[in-house]
Specification:
By secondary structure, the protein is mainly α. It has one domain. It has 18 helices and no strands. It starts with a helix and ends with a helix.
Length: 497
């Protein structure tokens, strides 16, 4: 059952992330064409500043999911009800704080942003973009955490996939009708108001939550804050630094490249999303031998997929952006060095997420909070050191540095406290993936890439992917033949079922 749920979760999460990545690129392109780089950068910057509310969330989502694994396994409805009630109370408090933050940001941000925008223009754009986040926290997150912990990520993914498609259509129609950026964003908000209604009805029908006076005491929430801080810095600090120290045009450049790299990253971490609840369930049931098997398979699949996809991305991302930004002349979008560093940073994020997923689903928030602190500090300090001399490249170097530090620290903790592995195991994994990445990147760069249209780009990307795939299969068949056969056998078994 766990394997079936994991495959459904991974499959639907993969579809969602592909659609999200495509949506982000399509919407950004439409905004670039219609409103220009400054508006695109402004929207990206506002969205990132509003995402600071995730700090208030304090990493509570992961803590709640870890707390739900055991009562869900034992079908303890009373305990589940207590946890969900505590979650609702917590997120309602966040909404009030977030509302105050939005008002302050809407008033102050127009004086900070660099660009030819009126105060009124920026003020109302901040208010409009904030509404969807408010609804997410107030109505959806308790139910999303419940479904995630119960290995039903596929429900969340299917709903969001449908809404992403509807949102693309709504935005396209709004732009075609001549709406301004404010009207375009309002159309997106109206689409996503479907979410809270769906979650409420689904949970009410399938979980029979009890009314209870007891409120679950949420443990490790401040430790969860520390971990959430590191995640927040990874996702948001770059844009904030570029906004404050450079300009919104550079934010637009960053946003285009990051949309590609983070889209690939989200596709890959769909594996983590699909497997997380299953890993948590195995840990909750204390099935030690099963845990090692699950982790071995999970680690091999995600690291190999990440290596292959980011190798192809590193070779093809600049030609992609050249085509994507064709006709946009207000800013230079061809930044090969920045692109390569950003790709490496997101690759390391995917590698790191393997180990942090295991650690956090084991509930080890307090024990590893120093890892998150070191990631955040390294990211900010290195970014600030290199920002003035290297621009957006320096920011990407900061992100990469933070990822490397956190990956090493998480591996060290995991090997000593959860799966008890020797350093040789991890050295072998990194060495194998590094060889594949470097060899395939070199081969890819030897191929003359003369992209004159999307058809040519797709053909060249497919060629690079096939070459990378062949080389990867050859190397993995030598170094990880056991894991490869296990994955193949498991897929065959699930297909037969």
């Amino acid at each position: 059952m766990r394997s079936k749920n994991a495959m459904m979760n991974i499959g639907t999460a993969l579809i969602l992330q592909l659609l999200t990545a495509i949506s982000g690129l399509l919407v950004s392109r439409l905004i670039l064409q219609t409103f220009g780089s400054n508006v695109n950068g402004l929207v990206t910057s506002i969205t990132q500043f509003l995402s600071y509310v995730s700090l208030l969330e304090a990493g509570i989502g992961g803590v709640i999911r870890a707390a739900l694994f055991k009562p869900l396994a034992e079908q303890d409805t009373e305990k589940i009800s207590e946890i969900i009630k505590a979650t609702k109370i917590f997120f309602q408090k966040i909404v009030y704080i977030f509302s105050a933050y939005v008002i302050i940001l809407a008033v102050a941000y127009p004086f900070v942003v660099k660009g030819n925008f009126t105060w009124k223009y920026v003020f109302f754009l901040v208010i409009i973009i904030s509404i969807s986040t408010l609804f997410e926290y107030f109505f959806c997150l308790p139910y999303i955490n419940l479904l995630s912990a119960d290995q039903k990520v596929w429900i969340i993914s299917l709903l969001n996939s449908a809404l992403v498609v509807i949102n693309i259509v709504a935005i396209y129609l709004a732009i075609a009708a001549g709406f301004g950026i404010h009207g375009v964003k309002i159309c997106g908000i109206l689409v996503y108001m479907i979410k809270p209604v769906f979650y409420y009805l689904y949970v009410k029908k399938h979980y029979k939550l009890q009314k209870t006076e007891k409120v679950y005491r949420i443990e490790q929430k401040w430790n969860g804050l520390v971990h959430n801080l590191a995640q927040f810095i990874h996702n948001n600090t770059d844009v904030a630094l570029i906004t404050l120290f450079i300009n919104v045009s550079e934010v637009s450049v960053y946003a285009v490249y990051y949309a590609v790299a983070s889209g690939i990253e989200r596709v890959i971490t769909s594996i983590s999303v699909g497997c997380a609840a299953g890993i948590g369930d195995v840990i909750a049931r204390k099935e030690k031998e099963r845990l090692n098997d699950v982790i071995n398979t999970f680690e091999f699949v995600q690291s190999s997929v990440a290596t292959v996809l980011f190798t192809v991305t590193g070779v093809m991302i600049v030609p992609f952006v050249e085509l994507y930004s064709h006709g946009v002349t207000d800013t230079n979008y061809v930044r090969p060095v920045f692109a390569y560093v950003l790709v490496l940073a997101e690759l390391f994020y995917c590698i790191r997420s393997i180990y942090s997923t295991i650690i956090l689903n084991a509930g080890h928030y307090k024990q590893t909070q120093v890892n998150a602190v070191m990631e955040a500090v390294t990211n900010i300090v290195v970014s600030l050191l290199f920002l003035k001399k290297m621009g957006i490249i320096g920011v990407a170097v900061g992100t990469l540095s933070g990822m490397i530090v956190r990956t090493i620290m998480d591996i060290r903790y995991l090997s000593k406290n959860i799966v008890y592995r020797t350093p040789v195991f991890f050295v072998k994994s990194f060495a194998t993936n590094a060889v594949i990445f470097l060899v395939c990147s070199y081969v890819g760069y030897l191929i003359p890439i003369n992209v004159i249209g999307w058809g040519t780009w797709i053909f060249m990307a497919s060629t690079v992917f096939c070459i990378t795939g062949v080389i990867s299969v050859f190397v993995y068949s030598i170094t990880y033949s056991k894991q490869m056969h296990e994955v193949i056998d498991r897929v065959r078994f699930l297909i037969r079922r």
